[in-house]
Amino acid sequence: MVLCRVGPHRMAFAALQVVSVEPVSQGDRRFTDSRHRLSKPGERGRALHGHQATLVVDSLEILPDAPLVFQVPSLLRLSVGESLAGFIQVKEELWPVFNLEPFARFLGRSAAPSEAS
Amino acid sequence: MKASPRVLNGLIRRITLGSMGAAALGALGALVAGLLILKPVEGTSWKLAVLIAGIFPVIALWRLSVESQRTKTVRALGRGERSPDRSLLLEALRELVSLSDRSFWTNVSTFLWGGAFTGVAYHTWTDASWSLSLQIFFLALTMGLTSALHAHVLLVPRVREGALLLMDVGLSQADALPELSARRRTVRQRIIILTSIGALAPSAVIAQLYLSRTDVVLDSLEANVGMTGMAAVELGVWGAVGVSAFIVWVLFIAWTGASSIALPMQEMARQASQIADGDLRPMPLVLAEDEVWTTSKAFIQMRMQLMNAVAELKRAGIKITGATDALVKTSDEHGSGTQQQVSSLNETSVTTEELARSAIEIAHRASSVAEIAKKTLQVAVLGQTTAEAFFGSMAQMKKDNHAIADAVVKLNKRVQQIGKIVEFINEIADKADLLALNAELEGTKAGDVGRGFSLVAAEMRRLAESVITSTREIASLINDIRDATNAAVMATEAGVKATDAGATISLQVAQSLRTIVELAQQTSDAVQTISLATQQQQTGTGQLAEAMSSVLNVTQQGALATEQMTSANADLAGLAKDLQSAVGRFQIN
What we know:
The structure holds two protein chains of two kinds. By secondary structure, chain A is an alpha+beta fold.
């Protein structure tokens, strides 16, 4: 499980969904920066490359053990573009677990109108 | 107060009136005596009377006309024809004083000439005997002497009055005295002449008269024998008449002669009494013709000398009084001034002593100042040396600062190089961290198989993160070092500038201290001079104080002498007043 932080938010992704990790510097326009939706972008970041999507976070760490994923209702899953997979509890904190590519597309859709505007 | 010269008008006539009367009386007496005494030729008595009455007046008028020429100055002054100056008044005095003697001899000569002419004329006219003419001449001589004596005795007082009148007009007694001194005749001579003429001449005339009447009586007796008794009576009568006439005549001559001698003596006695009473005012001259005149002249001179002496004494008394008053006043003022001088000198002496003490204090302080100036010079020299050393140190510091600045610049470059190296390390660490992260991700994907790999990757990642953390800290330190080196560069540059300024200032300080040293040297020399001068001043002030003390002593002695002088002056003023009082009893004006 990959634990990521974007601003004040925290999120987790399944390690299998992450193909590679790449450093991102400020002003790099190659990737859709999810930090624009979630918070103010930082100076340095990490780009999580999935099979078909990339998500930029501030920092990440890898949890070696696979924790228990708490399932969520379908309605809640649909509200976020079916990207929410559930929740895990790490170090007495509750982390939402997202699917990388849907979540990246979801953030991309949400970010497109604002970027167009 | 001077009288007008008009008072001299008719003076000669008034003076000679008495003498001419005496002469006329003498001529009349000669006529009567001639008729009574002489026995003219029968029937020629009238001729004798005519001759006497004719010749004597003619000769008398001739003599008067001659004599009047000898008194023309007095007459001219009396008529106002000439102004009465000193020489004219003296000439008039000479004419007057010679008038009495000339009058005597004029009378005598008139009778002589009259007797001679009458005798000759009678002899010629009547053929009378020459013995009768000689009797006429002898009778004229006798009567002439008697008449001249009478005229002289009557004239002398008038002449004296006339001389006094001249003095009233303006002739001074001092001028008159030399003129009057030439008259020389002694009392003895005067008395002899007076007695001779006054006694012998009447005696001769009376004797001739008596003898003549005796002859007449004897002739009558021869002619008439019975008239013896009558003749005796006639002779007795003639004798009584002759004796009486003789007595009266002699008494008259004695009285007038004695008066001419006694009156001046009486006047001198009166004036002596006045002088004895202290009256020295100018008095009329007591004129006389003999030793009385000598006495009178001496008396006049004595009175004048006494008057001058008293006047001088009065003037001297006044002057002495004024002088002594002024002297007393001056002495008082001098005493007051001396007291003030003593007081002032006391104050001056005190001031001088204070000045001496001040001079000592000044000298002491001047010595201290000289010592201080000497120390100041030493300190200034030391300061100059220190300033020059400081200037050298500042130059060395400037040089060191430049070296430090160069070193800091080099250090800054090295730090920048280190920063680049650290940045390079950081990039490597970041890549290592990313690689470790991907490796850990792959290990995690591998599941249990890749667990060990993940652990190693995680450990490597932690190492990389540690390296990154360290490089960040190093970068921070490098930034701090860079800031510090920049600050050091700036501080060094400022230090160089400050050092330059300090060197300049130290140079200026050194120059100023050099100037200060020179001035301090001059100050020290000047203070040494002042110290010597103040020592000399101290010595001089001490001598001045001693001199002032001596002057004070002398002035105090002078003040004492002034008091004594003031007392003496007061005594002198008293004596001067006594002198004035004593002299004041004499009246000289």
